[in-house]
Design brief:
2 domains, globular, alpha/beta, 7-stranded mixed beta sheet, Aspartate Aminotransferase, domain 1, 401 residues
């Protein structure tokens, strides 16, 4: 049986058109894009074309507002560090309790070393930001507000336009980690008060090891990686031309994804959720029902060990995850679920399914055929579940002697 891949928030399959576009830059147009000779200029043409493709996808005003990075983590780090350096007298960062570890780990390090003060804004049980706390955290010392566009574990979308407007009124720079949003949700920077935006190629059917930081024209900036004059002196290092070209093609493909394509993904996601809720008792879909990525569902099963569930799904040929791939492998429950105050009997039983435009109805039906039985078997080995079932049985016997 063909394996079923439903972990597209961790990484996506590189599109065949992306691979085909990259190949010539390994063996035909292989020269250094910073060289002034003919072969170098041919490589530079590919870099420029990709920049325009990213500009078009984001709705950026200028192609030079795109800075290539090694991925989303570098783009995030660059945004945070630059914002602190360019604003003397401002050393506070406002962010959320459900950000990706690429943000939260750096913020924690900056606070520990005395380089910044952090305001971590909480969320409610549906993963929605506490706007009142957010507003109270803004002040004359706020250097940067960094809020993800879409949460990687639940798919919850944040009101980025409103948050950026509030940050602008406070005189702070605004950055959004849009790694999960770009390519999966309409993103258009026109008319928004966004100063910086991070994205990653492998989240939108591009290659790994390449990303970008959008930097609005006129925003003061300090590079994180210094060296050569690449990227207008904003990011030193020889350009990864094949990956840059691949990112550009992936951006063009994402820009051409029709609303019907995203609607189809949403229908498949909804079919998966409705089927599981109907067939498995005591399970809950996490996140704001109306404001989520079309491709993402995070479902918790009471009294089930999520890691065991994922292992059994993998044996059945179904790939899913328990949340962020960057935080996987630890024994602690997800920080996102803890922030949402998921009950103790469910917090370790969370599974994230993330679809793509390549997902089929047959694959969703296969999950619905397999997963309820796996949950049932795991619960048979769960003492709390057996105790709960025994209590329910005794209650039923007392009601129906």
């Amino acid at each position: 049986m063909q394996p079923i891949y439903l972990d597209n928030n961790a990484t996506t399959r590189t599109h065949p058109a992306v691979v085909a576009a990259m190949l010539p830059y390994f063996n035909e147009r292989f020269a250094n894009a910073s060289s002034s000779h003919g072969p170098g200029m041919a490589a530079a043409d590919g870099v420029r074309a990709a920049r325009r493709q990213l500009q078009a996808l984001l709705g950026a005003a200028h192609d030079h507002e795109i800075i290539y990075t090694s991925g989303g983590t570098e783009a995030n780090s660059t945004a945070l560090m630059s914002a602190l350096e360019v604003q003397p007298g401002r050393n506070e960062i406002v962010t959320t309790a459900v950000e990706h570890p690429a943000i939260l780990a750096l913020v924690a390090h900056l606070e520990k070393t005395g380089r910044a003060k952090a305001h971590i804004i909480g969320v409610d049980a549906d993963g929605r930001l506490d706007i009142d706390d957010f507003e109270r955290a803004l002040g004359p010392r706020t250097a940067l507000v960094s809020v993800m566009w879409a949460n990687n574990e639940t798919g919850v979308l944040f009101p980025i336009a409103d948050l950026a407007r509030r940050a602008r009124r406070a005189g702070a720079l605004f950055h959004t980690d849009a790694v999960q949003a770009v390519g999966k949700h309409p993103v258009n920077l026109q008319g928004l008060d966004i100063d910086m935006l991070s994205l990653s190629g492998h989240k939108l059917h591009g290659p790994k090891g390449i990303g970008a930081l959008y930097l609005r024209k006129g925003v003061p900036f300090r590079p994180l990686i210094r060296g050569g004059r690449q990227e207008r002196g904003r990011r030193g290092g020889t350009e990864n031309v094949p990956a840059i070209v691949g990112l550009g093609v992936a951006a063009a493909l994402a820009a051409n994804t029709s609303p019907d394509g995203l609607a189809r993904v949403r229908l498949l996601r909804d079919r998966l959720e409705e089927g599981l809720l109907r067939r498995v008792e005591r399970c809950v879909i996490l996140g704001d029902a109306g404001d989520r990525l079309a491709n993402t569902t995070n479902i918790v099963f009471d009294y089930v060990d999520g890691e065991a569930l994922l292992l059994m799904l993998d044996r059945a040929g179904i790939a899913a995850s328990s949340g962020s791939a960057c935080a996987a492998g630890g024994m602690e429950p997800s920080h996102v679920l803890r922030a949402m105050r998921v009950p103790s009997q469910a917090v370790r039983g969370a599974v994230r399914f993330s679809l793509s435009t390549e997902t089929t109805l047959a694959e969703v039906e296969r999950v619905l055929a397999v997963l309820p039985d796996i949950v049932g078997r795991l619960r048979l080995n769960s003492p709390p579940w057996r105790d709960l079932a025994a209590v329910a049985e005794l209650t039923q016997s007392a009601l129906c002697p």
